[in-house]
Amino acid sequence: MSKKQRLELMWIGKGEKDNPRLEPRILIEDPEKSYGDKNTENILIHGDNLLALKALEQDYAGKVKCIYIDPPYNAKNANPHYEDNVEHSEWLCLIKPRLVILRKLLSDDGSIWISIDDDESHYLKVLCDEIFGRNNFVANVIWEKKYSPQNDAKWLSDSHDHILVYAKNKETWRPNLLPRTEEMDKRYKNPDNDPRGNWKPADFSVKTYNEVCDYEIVLPSGRRVQPPTSRCWVTSKERYLELVADNRIWFGKDGNNIPSLKKFLSEVQQGSVSKTIWFRTEVGDNQDAKKETKAFNSDDVFATPKPERLVERILTLGSNKNDIVLDSFLGSGTTAAVAHKMGRKWIGVELGEHCNTHCVPRLQKVIDGTDQGGISKAVDWKSGGGFRYYTLAPSLLKKDSNDRWVISEEYNAEQLAAAMAKQEGFKYYPDETVYWKQGYSTETDFIYTTTQFLTVDIIDKIHEEMKPEESLLITCKAFQDACVKRHSNITVKKIPHVLLGRCEFGKDDYSLNIINVPVVDFEDEEGEDC
Question: Which family is this protein grouped under (predicted)?
Fold first, then answer.
């Protein structure tokens, strides 16, 4: 097989159902539900997550540093927040287009972390190899999610989930180090009161034999020693003497021990490389997560959250302060809450009603500083910040009584202008003084959308105001025929005809069958997490 060839996961419906022609919707802020700092860049979106990702694509492509998603596991049991039991091929058709857009949103130095369990993890791995590139696979992290066996399990009691990790570009992406723990630092002592501080002894011999490093050492006690069998010392004799002079060799309190090298705490790497097995004692488990969510909604406990310490571990490794973090399956809001406390900018998307019953109140408490659970004390979280609450605009086009596509009456002039700018690939940014400069694609290329009947007089007046190097796209409902080729640097397009065939209008639901949240038995530790 040549290097250009690659294996692809095939399933029924691939190529037909997994590549929807998505309408690039605009986002509409609901000021009554936005909270805190009005200038915040944090975004909470209530709506279909595939349409929401498409809405974000234009402004955020290549800008998101770390993505964490916890999609429905398709675990063949009715999950209380998602209909978690769809046909395997249907699940793949639903998850693929989301991953495709998520990859576009990732920055070149970004990474994506995906929680999943055994039911779909191996299929998802092959699918991610196809989308992100097998060469960009980083690791399969194992998270210990339960502390006790499930006694009614028919076969084996599952005690872990998977977290698949991919980099946008593995050649350049590097994870951050984990902070050093107190336990790690306790290994360093200072028995000789060295002014350089605490240290710990390290082996002064190595396996790789080098004749230059094979010599006799006379200990302070007078005893003579050689390197252990089949080994040699770490350095040459000349370098060894320099280390002795610098008090970097330890011979024990009585000077009679085999020499060891003093490794000072102040000189070691200020962090540790993450392992791929994450124990519940380090990052929490299901029960921890449920206790955290109960603190902000005790009447309607979210059944399948993730513990804050788990998400903290991911964001520590995959992002830094002020980086953008995205979760398009926000659930109870854990990722947004943790990102907020850690000083990251965040985007959260959630379709279910728990966006309002769980995410909003949880994030409000984080901002107010009344949420002191989870990682709050560990990161010394006080209060501050905010989020802006958005919903997806309705479909731009709809069918009238004669089965013809027309512009939805729900759009006002400003929203229509913003929608047409997005449809045509322009950044919607109305000029404060020039009315026809509603958006731009370059410094000299603009778009103008109007609901007026476009006449030659109107287009001539606009042309008089334009600079020679400027170009303009005008979209409108109707115009005089003479407007079309009136000026070489002005293009006129008719709405809705220019849009027909581009995408799938009138469809609002690409969801994974999300349903309302029921009351959950808090004591029930078992069950799938998604």
Answer: Belongs to the N(4)/N(6)-methyltransferase family.
Start-to-end C-alpha separation, the chain: 37
Domain ranges of the chain: 27-179+272-392, 182-267, 397-494
Contact (CB, 8 A) for 325 and 187: no
Query: Would you mind telling me the total number of residues written for the chain in this entry?
Result: 530
Residue ranges in 297-403 assigned as alpha helix (H): 308-318, 334-341, 354, 360-368
Instruction: Name the pLDDT band for 300 (thresholds 50, 70, 90).
Output: low
CA distances from 85 to 74, 79, 179, 514 (A): 5, 8, 39, 11
Q: What is the spatial distance between Cα 511 and Cα 20, in angstroms, rounded to a whole number?
A: 12
Was domain 27-179+272-392 assigned CATH 3.40.50.300? no
Tell which residue, 106, 303, 73, 282, has the closest CA to residue 179: 282
Residue type (1 letter), 412: N
Please determine whether the domains at 27-179+272-392 and 397-494 fall in the same fold group of CATH: no
Burial, 104: exposed, middle or buried (Cβ in 10 Å; 0-12, 13-18, 19+)?
Answer: middle
With a cut of 70, say whether residue 476 has pLDDT above it. Answer: yes
Cα distances from 439 to residues 410, 434, 454, 479, in angstroms, run: 21, 11, 19, 21
Q: Outline where 246-344 has alpha helix (H).
A: 280-283, 286-294, 308-318, 334-341
pTM above 0.90, yes or no: no
Kindly calculate the radius of gyration of the chain based on its CA atoms and give it in whole angstroms.
30
Instruction: State the amino acid at position 488 in one-letter form.
Output: S
Count Cβ atoms within 10 A of the Cβ of residue 170 and give its class: 0-12 exposed, 13-18 middle, 19 or more buried: middle
Its CATH class, for the domain covering 397-494, is: alpha beta
Helices (H) and strands (E) in the chain, counts: 13, 25
Distance (Å, whole) CA 28 – CA 409: 16
- Burial of 207-233, coded b for 16+ CB within 10 Å and e otherwise, reads eeeeeebeeebebeeeeeeebeeebbb
